[in-house]
Write a structure and sequence with these properties.
Strand content: 5-15%
Order of helices and strands: EHEHEEHHHH
Number of domains: 1
Distance between the termini: 46 Å
Number of strands: 4
Helix content: 40-55%
Structural class: alpha+beta
Largest sheet: 4 strands, mixed
Radius of gyration: 15 Å
Shape: globular
Length: 125
């Protein structure tokens, strides 16, 4: 079973996860909200900050994947596997990875959740 670690406090992320959850009629996915009270990142081998920086997933083998690969696995599990090869084409792959990277870096700002601590720019030395 593929497990996705998602930020349940992110409205865009939750909307996407809710849609995938509705499509997961065969129960092939496990959904873990890293913003839930009591969530412990220790079993993932990652810190909470690392999990917040980019969507992550755990393959049935235990291997961790991140970014667009998580979405490939999610969509493949709900019957959209024919789309996966298209997302791996050289130009498409690069564009999707770049777009997700921009979103991940700006997710808190885009969802109105910036604080001085979460979105502060590092002081120049």
């Amino acid at each position: 079973m593929f497990e996705v670690f998602f930020d349940g406090d992110c409205p865009l992320c939750t909307r996407e996860i809710d849609m995938i959850r509705a499509l997961d009629r065969r129960g092939r996915l496990r959904f873990t909200d890293i913003a839930a009270p009591g969530f412990d990142p220790t079993p993932t081998g990652l810190t909470h900050d690392e999990l917040m920086a980019s969507i992550r997933g755990r393959m049935p083998s235990g291997e961790m994947v991140e970014g667009v690969e998580v979405f490939r696995q999610l969509y493949g599990a709900v019957g959209l596997r024919p789309l996966m090869p298209l997302t791996r084409l050289p130009g498409v792959r690069h564009a999707l990875d770049a777009a997700y990277g921009v979103f991940a870096r700006n997710r808190l700002r885009l969802t109105g959740r910036c604080t001085d601590e979460t979105c502060a720019l590092p002081e120049s030395a």
